[in-house]
Amino acid sequence: MNLPVTAVLMGGPSREREVSLLSGRNVAEALLEGGVPRVVAVEILPGGGWRVGEEGVLSPLEALVRLLEIGTGCFFLALHGPGGEDGSVQGLLEILGVPYTGSGVSASALAMSKTACRAVLGAAGIPLPPGAELRRPDSEAIRRAAFKCGFPCFLKEDASGSSLGVHRVAGPEDLDRVLEGLEGLEGKGEPLVVESAVSGTEATVAVLGNRDGELEALPVVEILPRKAFFDYQAKYDPAWTEEVCPPGSLSPALQETLRELAVRVHRVLGCDGVSRTDFIVGPDGPVVLECNTIPGLTRESLLPKAAGAAGISFPELTVRMVRLALELHGR
Fold first, then answer.
1. CB 49: neighbour CB atoms within 10 A?
2. For this structure, is 296 an active site residue?
3. 100 in active site
4. Which residue ranges form the domains of the chain, and what is each CATH number?
5. What is the pLDDT of residues 111-161, one digit of tens each?
6. Could you confirm whether 25 is annotated as catalytic?
7. Is 196 assigned a catalytic role?
């Protein structure tokens, strides 16, 4: 299968914009190294314009027309957070009928919503931390859920990634401070998840493949943050986290259990291309924290580390994601 001209979409309006730009630039370099004949970097600006290569800023429609005119055969999505990972851009590309990397509209939206994702995974029997999904939370409902979960616990805003919008509540005295920071959430009717903090080993497993085909679970990566939890700073500053692959503290049998669970999550949510499922391995076994449908692709990101441990170079990984997109579109 010949590799097509590929447009890498990066940036976007979310709080994860800077990480997305790093991922996108990394991907663009890797695709060229992997044999893609032409790569066009497309930066989606916070105001809605699209900067296409060296051609300046265009409207989204003008940009898409221009990209199709130059023969773009695949769109590589390096977008993170709302407006890029939640199914919106995927829906636009579905209308155009062009291949794009990663999951489709429904899986993207489902994984992005922490409340919906918990509900679906829980119904499928996937182990989760004790908690509650609050569809239209108010401060009293949050308080009741927090005291039921016990302390420490986490309050998680519904549509956020890179640990943005995740608030650790150390104890009852900390709850008022966190609720003050969430002012306005009640008025917007934004969903919220309240979860017990599970003590244990944090780990992640990436899965490659389309849901109706063969799936490959990559090696487990153990995450050792030097903070109370794996927050935004710990994810992207190597000084705050050690990532071990393969992990030394998890038995081979437990690692295989995590890989099997990650494959189950991929299938239950209907993911395509790639996913990365995050776990805490507590005293009662592993629980799933979340599933990412567009994992980070910066130099510090977990997916490239796991792929490297499996003998897959970064250029090979990006090209494989393009091929999976073309296979899915072809069917």
1. 16
2. yes
3. no
4. 5-101 (3.40.50.20), 110-127+199-330 (3.30.470.20), 131-196 (3.30.1490.20)
5. 999 999 999 999 999 999 999 999 878 888 999 999 999 999 999 988 765
6. no
7. no
Evaluate if residue 232 carries a pLDDT over 60. no
Catalytic-residue membership of 157: no
Of 92-101, 128-137, 170-179, 296-305, the range with the highest mean pLDDT is 92-101
**What does the mean pLDDT of the chain come to?**
91
Q: Which of 158, 163, 278, 301 is catalytic?
A: 278
The single residue of 162, 196, 275, 301 carrying the catalytic annotation is 162
Which is catalytic among the residues 85, 102, 195, 236?
236
CA–CA separation, 102 and 76 (whole Å): 8
Active site residue 236: yes
- Out of 14, 16, 133, 320, the active site residue is 16
Task: Label residues 241-274 b or e (16+ Cβ within 10 Å = b).
Answer: bebbbebeebeeebbebbbebbbbbbbbbbbbbb
Written as one letter, the residue type at 164 is L
Q: Residue 23's pLDDT is what?
A: 96
pLDDT of residue 278 exceeding 80: yes
